[in-house]
Structure formats: C-alpha cells, structure tokens
Design goal:
Elements lengths: L3 H20 L3 E4 L5 H14 L5 H14 L4 E3 L1 E3 L13 E13 L2 E10 L7 H11 L2 H8 L4 H7 L1
Parallel strand pairs: 1-4, 3-5
Antiparallel strand pairs: 2-3, 4-5
Helix pairs in contact: 1-4, 2-3
Main location: cytoplasm
Subcellular location: Cytoplasm
Keywords: Cytoplasm, Kinase, Phosphoprotein, Phosphotransferase system, Transferase, Transport
C-alpha cells in the first residue's frame, strides 16, 4: 500500500518528469529585457528556433495582450503569453524565459514567462495542467525566479 507521503512524492516526480521533458531544451535565462513585448518576443524566439512556431505566432500573442490586457499573468511573477493554433503553431510546445530583473507586464511584475503554443484546441490540456500544478507552488515559483541558470531551474521542477 502506498502511503499518502509516498503518493505525494510520486505525483510530484511525475509532474517533474513531464515538465523537464517539455522544457529541457526550451529554457533561457536573461538578466533583463526592454519591456513586456521584448519578453514575449524572446520567449517566442525559443520556440521559433526549434521550429515549433512561426514568427506570426509571436506577433499574434503580443496583439492579444495589447487587446485584452495582462490576462496572461496567471499568478505572481508568472506570465503565459499565447495565441491561437492557426496563428502559426507547428507543434505543441512550451518555453520558459527567466528574467532575473523582472519586467513590468502592464502593471504586474513578472520573472517567469512561459510561452505556450498548442497545435490544436486540446493537445495542450495536459501541459496546462502540469504547469498549473507547478505555478501553484509559491515556493517553487520563488526559487525559480531567483535561479542562476537553466540547470538550477530544472532542479526545481
């Protein structure tokens, strides 16, 4: 029989394995960015470089924020810019940009920018669920916000 503690550890390890496999090649750490648009462009560039998205996806994500406001700030210090699948997604993917100095995201300070790209309207559901579990842990978010490099971030997952 699995104790509650062991179940919790197994659940966390499963979350970590999934997040590490999704993010391992898609994490960049920067000291600072010019503004929130630069943050979106730089987080999108990670996915552009591995051909998960097209350039127009990044611009669509920026236009969404300009139109709808900072709805992409999903919790303290965390933003998740995104656009629609038809805006240029080649494969479902997630990137993480850590901005050490933070950036003002239309009135909200953000250090962690997760760019989400979904190829369709359902393939991202599991990614969102795992990301939600991750960012709900305030301690992990804080540690990730002060990480020195990609390896340190991966250790916190």
């Amino acid at each position: 029989m699995c104790s509650l503690y062991n179940y919790s550890i197994l659940k966390k390890n499963k979350r970590a394995d999934i997040m590490k496999s999704i993010l391992k090649d898609n994490i960049h750490v920067l000291e600072r960015v010019e503004d929130w648009k630069d943050a979106v462009r730089k987080s999108g560039k990670i996915l552009l470089e591995n051909q998960s998205i097209e350039e127009r996806y990044i611009e669509a994500a920026i236009k969404n924020i300009e139109k709808l406001g900072n709805y992409v700030v999903i919790t303290d210090n965390v933003a998740m810019p995104h656009a629609r699948p038809e805006d240029g997604v080649n494969q479902t993917a997630l990137s993480l940009l850590l901005i050490k100095d933070g950036v003002d995201f239309l009135g909200e300070n953000v250090n962690l920018v997760f760019m989400l790209a979904s190829k369709d309207n359902s393939s991202h559901i599991e990614v969102i669920r795992k990301l939600s579990q991750l960012v709900d842990d305030e301690e992990i978010v804080e540690k990730m916000s002060f990480a020195k490099n990609k390896e340190e971030i991966l250790n916190y997952l």
